[in-house]
UniProtKB/TrEMBL annotation:
Residues 4-109 form the FAD-binding FR-type domain. This is Ferredoxin. SUPFAM superfamilies: 2Fe-2S ferredoxin-like (SSF54292), Ferredoxin reductase-like, C-terminal NADP-linked domain (SSF52343), Riboflavin synthase domain-like (SSF63380). Keywords: 2Fe-2S, Flavoprotein, FMN, Iron, Iron-sulfur, Metal-binding, Oxidoreductase. It comes from the Bacteria. Residues 236-320 form the 2Fe-2S ferredoxin-type domain. Its cofactor is FMN. GO terms for molecular function: 2 iron, 2 sulfur cluster binding; metal ion binding; oxidoreductase activity.
Length: 320
């Protein structure tokens, strides 16, 4: 991880965007300029907990008129006792926190002739910086944004004012109910790249439909906030070929967790199978892939896996 390169930031402002979403403006503690970031970037926040440091990832943007700031939006998850609960109930203006430098695993494709963004709920956040960047570069884009209602639609006023011709809103409650649909992917011209961010079911529906409609794989982009759900998780064994060590990965832990707990330091970052940082070579055994990073060909080769999400059947021999 990059905690050794953490930034110290001060919470400059907190704004309630909806009843469940708060926006936090972060500034450098010495009033210098925080590092720049590209559209789709995120930071990792390191939150102190009784059991240790809790890592959480949030898309970054800056809707203020002042340069050198970082902003994130955090939705309070139901029954949360972790990251979102801490941000909503403990963080106050003036607090000093540790965050990573901005990283980008969800970048804009500048091979695209047009960009179409599909967001649901808090999934709007990566698109805020993307739209700002495309506007600066005079590139075309459109946003399709689903929420329960106008009141629960974070950043509605900002989006409506800043991008009146590019934004399309879909509210599932109220008098004028309108739902976002994957069939809208059929309306885009050739050369369009599509981007999805929201609940897992939404990402799966839109990504599957894009493939069915003939979108080339490199025209389809999405970002997850959490690993793909697994119907069943079973324990499996690993043997490290070079270290001649054997370990068991319990059903409720990841391979990455077990390696780190046993002092085996491997690089990692996103923990949701999206960046490829924690990739490990496998020399024997059957892999069950849950990542969104490796290509179908790489997954079928059964020779490499992302240790943060993917698992084994029975026993794996790792090139470690």
């Amino acid at each position: 991880m990059y905690r050794n390169r953490a930034l110290q930031v001060r919470v400059a402002n907190i704004k309630e965007e909806t009843s469940t979403i708060k926006r936090f403006t972060l500034q450098a503690i010495d009033d210098t300029i925080l590092p720049p970031f590209s559209g789709g970037s995120h930071i990792t926040t390191f939150l102190p907990q009784p059991t240790g440091i809790l890592d959480r990832h949030y898309s970054v943007f800056n809707l203020t008129a002042k340069t050198g700031l970082l902003e994130i939006a955090v939705r309070l998850a139901e029954d949360s006792t972790g990251g979102s609960y801490y941000w909503h109930h403990h963080v106050q203006v003036g607090d000093v926190l540790s965050v990573s430098y901005p990283k980008n695993y969800f970048p804009l494709s500048f091979q695209a002739k047009h960009h179409a963004f599909y967001a649901a709920g808090i999934g709007i956040t990566p698109f805020l910086s993307m739209m700002a960047e495309l506007t600066e570069k005079n590139k075309t884009f459109e946003l399709h944004y689903a929420a329960k209602s106008k009141e629960q639609c974070a950043f509605y006023d900002y989006l409506h004012e800043a991008f009146p011709n590019q934004c399309h809103f879909y509210f599932s409650n109220g008098e004028d109910k309108k739902r976002i649909s994957p069939t809208q992917l059929l309306n885009h011209r050739i050369g369009t790249h599509v981007y999805f961010c929201g609940p897992e079911s939404m990402i799966q529906d839109f990504a599957t439909s894009a493939k069915t409609y003939g979108y080339p794989p490199f025209h389809v982009h999405f970002e997850r906030f959490a690993p793909r759900p697994m119907k069943e998780q079973h324990a499996f064994q690993i043997r490290m070929k070079r270290k001649e060590t054997e370990l068991e990965v319990p059903a409720n832990a990841t391979l990455l967790d077990v390696l780190l707990q046993n002092g085996i330091k491997i690089p990692y970052s996103c923990r949701v199978g999206g960046c490829g940082t924690c990739e490990i070579k496998v020399t024997e055994g059957e892999i069950v892939h849950f990542d969104s990073f490796l290509s179908e060909e790489q997954q079928k080769s059964n020779r490499t896996m992302l240790s943060c999400v993917s698992r084994g059947k029975g026993r794996l021999v790792l090139d470690l």
